[in-house]
Specification:
With 178 residues, the chain is an alpha+beta fold. It has a domain of 55 residues: Nucleotide Exchange Factor Grpe, Chain A, domain 2. The protein is built from 3 helices and 6 strands, in the order H-H-H-E-E-E-E-E-E. The strands form 2 sheets. Strands 1-4-5 form a 3-stranded antiparallel β-sheet. It has a 3-stranded mixed β-sheet with strand order 2-6-3, with no helix packed on it. Helix 2 packs antiparallel against helix 3. The longest helix is centred in the middle third of the chain and has 61 residues. The termini are far apart.
């Protein structure tokens, strides 16, 4: 029996030393007098640490998901923007005079299919012609004086602008009436 009592006394002393060390570091609460209370304090401490670790993991998962979505959206937008010159060339080919009707029909089908794919990706044209100038979506390269349109109105579109959602892929290059 004396041996068990000695071990119990050693555990109590070690527990008191740990509690005193925590108090010295400013981590401890009130002083615990018996081993049962000390075990309850330690259990409460471990539960608190486990809850904090769990909350950190949830926050990490949420942050990672947001970052992944942002990267995916940015990558889609950058990829779609790389195809805009191809779209411009297909539109120019449609506007060019052509004697071979089947050739022109093939270009038209390709253009339609290409625009359908861009639409499915969420790419839309920025409507600028005869609209008020908006520097968020348009770049003005020329100004003209005219009474036919209202002030600060787009009178000509040189290059179409496109956006994906609220992200501008390419600004519309326009002429503005002063």
């Amino acid at each position: 029996m004396g041996e068990k009592r000695e071990k119990r006394e050693e555990r109590r002393e070690k527990m008191e030393e740990r509690i005193e060390a925590r108090e010295a570091r400013g981590e401890g609460g009130e002083r615990v007098e018996d081993v049962g209370d000390a075990a309850a304090v330690l259990e409460e401490d471990w539960k608190d640490k486990a809850l904090r670790a769990q909350a950190e993991l949830v926050n990490f998962r949420n942050r990672s998901e947001r970052e992944r979505e942002q990267i995916w959206g940015r990558t889609r937008a950058e990829t779609a923007a790389q195809f805009l010159p191809v779209l411009d060339n297909l539109e120019r080919a449609m506007d060019a005079p052509c004697a071979d009707e089947s050739y022109k029909q093939g270009v038209e089908m390709t253009l339609r299919q290409f625009t359908d794919i861009l639409t499915k990706l969420g790419v839309s044209e920025i409507d600028a012609f005869e609209k008020p100038f908006d520097p968020q979506y348009m770049d003005a390269v020329l100004h003209e004086e005219s009474d036919a349109l209202g002030e600060n109105t787009v009178s000509q579109v040189f290059t179409k602008g496109y956006r994906m959602g609220e992200r501008v892929l390419r600004h519309a290059v326009v002429k503005v009436v002063n």
